[in-house]
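Q: Got a minute? One more chain.
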Amino acid sequence: MPVDVKNSDAEKSYGGNFDINYRATLLNNRASISINQLFFYTRINGPFVLTELTNGYYKYLQPAGFTDTKGIEANVKLIYNHFKLFIGYTFAEVEQHYLTTTQFLLVARNRLNNVLMYEVEDKLKIGLEGYYYSRQKLNDRTTGKSYWLCGFMAEKIWARFSLFINFENILDVRQTRFDAIYTGTITNPVFRDIYAPFDGLVMNGGIKIRL
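A: Always. Here it is, folded:
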């Protein structure tokens, strides 16, 4: 895929964010809660865009227009005894405004991040996590599927060493299971956007030694 770069002015970005924080103790100081609410906006004028030319070459061009990102992010942390719960939600609109119509870029508009930990300091750690990605607009004007990514980890700790085990993507989510990655034939494929994992379930474990 030959690529060329057109000389042009550098990209210029603008933006900012504003957040609100809240902390409190509960249940006679046996539990605590903290909340963070973030608002953000970023704009890039004159973005470089990889563009396919009619001769099969690709060139980075800088069309008139801009891309912008706006949204909110909310995070909650709850602690009770040895348990810690983290919940996060992100809403993001990433749009390009340099074509004839406004288009969304390949970013999930809604995301959930959830982590539950049980931890006894210097003895034991157990964690569960779940991440949700909403449907995404693809470059071929179709819409991708929503999906969850979940994981589990555990670590037993002793004075000089610890044993751990880790499971990633325990639901074995793969884009090839619920959506196509290309159209056409195998000999003449037209590849679609990749927006979900390919590697499926991943397991690993081991030992940590403290010298």
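A: The first helix runs from residue 175 to 178.
Q: Perfect, thanks.
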